[in-house]
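OP here, attaching both records as promised.
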Amino acid sequence: MGFLSTADVGIHPLRKGPVNHEVALSTKFFEFMQARLPVVVSDVKAMSDEVTRVGNGEVFRSEDSKDLARALNLVLGDPERYAEPYERPGMLDEWSWEVQPQKYVALYEWLLSDLV
């Protein structure tokens, strides 16, 4: 994480369309967040919704280089604005490995509850 956190911004340019692009939050996305990087993501549903909710970056239209440049200019022009959400108490806790196993256990217990 030390090396990644030396970057100015994390860019995740997934193409719109493939279902897994639209519904998933990728490992790279979480790595950017744990490194406390401002992010610029394409307008795939799950990632753009999360960035909009959290306020840690900007969204650009998939496969639109001019819109990517616009989003990058916004983030690079005011990096403190996009880093601020990481200062909120507990903001990264939801996505930490320490919290995730509890969610998996609860999910598996729920899925298996009809079988037991």
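Record two, same layout:
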Amino acid sequence: MRIQPVLAVPATLALALLAPAGALAASSAVAAPAPPTCRDSRLAVAATASDQPDAVRISITNRGGTACVVDRIPTVVFGDLDGAAQPVPASESAPYRLAAGRSAYAAVRTLDPTSTELRVVDRLTVAGDPSHRGRTFDAASLGAPDGIRVWEPVTTSWHPSQAAADTVLERHTD
């Protein structure tokens, strides 16, 4: 006589029966995949003079149809000088989610007001991610026809509004 199984137990049910309480719930919770890094060509980058001396306002807009991520610290470099503006407050690189059609804002101080040294450059470049080429802005377009004064530049991280970025810069550079 042939024996036929009376009850077929699906593998997930068997795991549920054998696993300690709560273990299956924790293991079955799968995090949604992170959005991809925004392509440079998908981003609109802008920079304008600020009403504060030696400061620039920057923004980035996701022109794509889906969310993507940029680095939470904008990459801002000055002419041919080595290095980039340092984040204030000090922070590490991490993803910043930018929804489709949305913008993020940051503020940059190009010159430490207590500095006795400076360099003058004819342009600055802003990128949303260190792997991007970014967009270059000449000094005249930023209200500095004689050049951008630079020494120990700092930048805020990206913020949902320009007012928030300006506030952070003021708080950390006074």
